[in-house]
Amino acid sequence: MAGTKSNVSARETAYQLIRSRIINLDLKPNDVLNEKELVEEMGMSRTPIHEAIIMLSLEHLVSVRPQSSTFVAPIDLKMVGIEQFNRCAVEKEIARLACGTLQEEHRQMYEENLQLYQIYINSQSPDRDHQLFDLDNAFHRIAFTVCGRGEYFDWMLKSFQHIERIRILSLRMNIAAYVKEDHEQLTQAMLRGDVGQVGELLDMHLKRYQDDLLPIQKRYPYYFQT
Fold this sequence. Notes:
Layout: H1 2-23, H2 35-42, H3 46-58, E1 62-64, E2 70-72, H4 77-98, H5 104-121, H6 128-146, H7 150-158, H8 163-172, H9 178-192, H10 195-206, H11 209-219
Antiparallel strand pairs: 1-2
Helix pairs in contact: 1-3, 4-6, 4-10, 5-6, 5-9, 6-7, 6-8, 8-11, 9-10
């Protein structure tokens, strides 16, 4: 039993490490995943890494060609649409439940998040994009926290595979300047308890990636499935 738990833990660790490198663009589409090199790099046996790659292939993040190579898959826009549709439905319902019930501590959480976001917008730090990415996620998690459902957001975030790379690319190209203003408007509507406006703002905010797609595809065509 202990050995089984150890194998599962190693597989999950390998899965999270490889997935993170793909999502954060450290691994690009068509980069080859060499299991032997990953074994040496991660200090694991081949089995958990092989199983992790199979898990990633089921999520369309990795393509496996039998008797050939295993490589990072491009962004699948069909999967992006599915992910965003699900996200919009869940977030709008959570926002409806949270609206008008925010306490002082939640208002402070929103304000601190917005202040930090502004700081990193102007930052020259090499990890600026990843900090902004994490702050964006933290902002959206607040409404879930208000409802006592923070783990729902964590579960939802784990289901995102393809939209995350588009979000990182938009930050890299500095075309996501609308995020802070959108978040400010959402915060004010949440504090007022204006359920209707919150729903409209969320719908607009979560669909903005569609406007980013064309410039991103022009600059990074190799990131997308043709």
